[in-house]
Every structure is written in C-alpha cells, then in structure tokens.
Amino acid sequence: MLSMIKAVLFDLDQTLINFMKMKSESCKSALDAMVKNGLKIDKKIGIKKLMDTYLRFGIESDIAFTKFLEEQTGKADEKILQAGIDAYLKTKPNFLKPYPYVLEILEYLKSLNVKLGIVTDAPKTKATHRMKAINIIHFFDFIITFDDTGEKKPSNRPFKLAMEKLNLHPEEILFVGDSMTRDIRPAKKLGMKVLRIRRAEDLKKIKEFFNNSS
Fold first, then answer.
1. Strand partners, 27
2. pLDDT per residue over 149-187, tens digit each?
3. Secondary-structure class of domain 20-95 per CATH
4. What is the pTM of this model?
5. By the 8 A CB rule, do 186 and 159 touch?
C-alpha cells in the first residue's frame, strides 16, 4: 500500500500549460509583423532563427527580439522591434490555456484537502501572470520560482524549499512534471513519488495515487 500523499507539487510549463505552443505561435505572429514593417528575411528561416535566439538567451528572455534583430540586420530598428513585440503580446493570450484535464484534476485534489504547490524555473512575475491568465492560481498554496532560490531545476534547492513550506516528508509528496531531467529524477532522488506527464491524458493518472493510498 502506498503511503498517504498529503501534497502534490506541479511543474508549470509543459505540465499544466502548453508553453512552447504559446511561444512558437506568438513568435510566428511577431515575425510576420516585423516582416510587414521592413525586416528582410524568409519567414521559415526567420522563425527558426528567432526561436534559436530564445534558446540561446533563455526561453523567458526579454531581450530575445532585440538580439534577433541585431544579429539579422546589425541593429534593432525601433519600428520593427515594436511591431514584433505588439504582435507577440496580442497573440499570446489566444494560446495561453491550460491543458485538458487540468481544472478537473485541481478541483479533485482540492476536494481531498491536498496541499498544492508549483515548482517552476520561470520568473515569479511571469509564472504568476500565466497562472492568473488561465485561472488556476487560486488552487495553489504557494509558487516557487527561480527568483526564490536563484537556482533552476534539477538543482535540489527548489524541491527542498517546497518541502520546507509543506513541512512534510518526501514520501508524502507527489511531484508531477514533464521533464525526466529537471523534474522526475531530482524529485525521485529526494524520495518523492513522481508522475511524468508526456501527454495531457497523463494528468488523470494522479487519481490512481489517491485510490491506491486510501
């Protein structure tokens, strides 16, 4: 019989939100707007280079558009840059949605009085914004971000901070995430139970942990 689980910790992006879909679609709109405002680049090549810029400077980078334009044209033309930013921000809300089953599972866990937390590498302001935008922030007791520890997963510091906030033993905690390297292995190493999310349907497997522990 499994030990009683008293808390569930979630990764945020690619676990509860399709972050990369939102990022790629927003970047496509941004590139279209930049091309319309004078940027000379093939769109297919441009989107690849823009996404590569994000990967090099950080997927949450606020300077990716500037660096992208500097690398392509030698400078970041203000008109082109602003057009890209405006299009990005306009498109982003259309793709900022929770995965299927997210609300169902969160409501189920709250009905069991299970403590819920987020452990994410995202900056606090951006993580909070995304959670408010998809209307899930009220489900969670706390949010741990890069700003809280100064270290990203798979460092054990974010996980240990979550354990401190919960004041629970690791075997009483289920960690749910998409990345084997950043989520599953470090959580399991600390003694937590783990569930890897490869597709939205996997979220429903959370219920099995509670059915088996009752």
1. none
2. 999 999 999 999 999 999 999 999 999 999 999 999 999
3. mainly alpha
4. 0.91
5. yes
Residue 177: burial class (beta carbons within 10 Å; 0-12, 13-18, 19+):
buried
- Is-contact 108 205, C-beta < 8 A? no
Quote the pLDDT of residue 1. Answer: 37
Q: How far is C-alpha 177 from the geometric centre of its chain's CA atoms?
A: 10
Class of domain 7-18+98-213: alpha beta
Structure tokens at 197: 């999310």
Rounded to a whole number of angstroms, the CA Rg of the chain reads 19
Please name the residues in contact with 207: beta carbons below 8 A apart, sequence gap of 6 or more: 105, 108
Q: Can you tell me the distance from the alpha carbon of 68 to that of 16, in angstroms, rounded to the nearest whole number? A: 29
The token duo for 96 is 């900022």
Backbone phi, psi, residue 118, to 5°: -110, 135
Are the CB atoms for 52 and 67 separated by under 8 Å? no
How many of the other CB atoms lie within 10 Å of CB of 52?
13
